[in-house]
Amino acid sequence: MLPIDLSGKRALVLGVADDAGFGFAIAKAMAEAGAAISVGTWPPALNIFLNLIERGKMDEGRRMRDGGLLSFEKIYPLDAAYDTLGDAPADILTNKRYKDVGDFSIAGLVDRVTADFGQKSIDIVVHSLANAPEVKKSLLETSRAGYLAALSVSAYSLVSVVNRLGPLMRSGGSVLSLTYMASERVIPGYGGGMSSAKAALESDTRVLAWEAGRKFGIRVNTISAGPLASRAASAIGIIERMVEYCAANTPLPEALQAEEVGNAAAFLASPLASGITGTTLYVDKGYHSMGMATTL
Ligand SMILES: NC(=O)c1ccc[n+]([C@@H]2O[C@H](COP(=O)([O-])OP(=O)(O)OC[C@H]3O[C@@H](n4cnc5c(N)ncnc54)[C@H](O)[C@@H]3O)[C@@H](O)[C@H]2O)c1
Q1: Residue among 129, 110, 127, 111 at smallest CA distance from 45
Q2: Cα–ligand 1 centroid distance for 55 (angstroms)
Q3: What is the pTM of this model?
């Protein structure tokens, strides 16, 4: 057997607030492979997430192959829009969802991880978050502020995370993000600058692979996933249509399962993928290779 073995490794999965999205599926697959998991959760979603766990509403999703429940070493508050707490505006600092959670910036996350686990304590970082306040607007109608907010949270945050968490990562470590094909082909309705943010994320994956490879000895890859009706995707407003369209036009017609992305992520983070960095890996049932729709 050639196993995906992540035992003894610690993963930090950023962008988990329920059990429906890719981040959760990735966390679970990595836990199944033996990794210890901590997550970063957006403060506005943090209480709901903690409640879901506490009330057992996620037990079914958390159930592992061995019968136990997926557990998290730590659940950190994280707003990836801010590199330091000083960058957060007054209305955020005083907001009821933020004011009692402590330092929710990327620098705050680094401080907490260092305090909890020490230097050189992380092997895997997963960036599974995105946000665009104007996602329902076409690119043409997106404001400068909306466009920059999409780029800031959905793309620049990866640069900041690699820069700040890189020193905490052990050599051979792996950073992974999630992208979408709207970066390279037009997906009408995927607006607000999100297509631009994904294009930046994919380009940054290549440059960060080079820079962080040389500086920290870590790998940086991104998975281009097919559509999944997660909470974030439902905000786009056309996700059901995207899923249906893909089912009708992908080489493999079954709807993409989050678990399939989780398994690919576990492989990419494992020593089996030690030669892979700077790549965009499609986990989309083959849709990216199509040139003509079979349905009109
Ligand atoms: N669902 C899809 O169809 C699809 C397809 C391809 C790629 N992706 C990508 O997968 C990743 C995960 O998304 P998902 O669809 O699984 O949905 P999801 O809702 O599970 O994950 C998105 C997470 O981002 C968090 N978030 C939003 N703003 C944040 C901020 N400022 N700071 C920190 N966290 C923040 C949300 O709370 C949420 O937990 C995203 O990068 C998304 O673009 C999704």
Answers
A1: 129
A2: 23
A3: 0.98
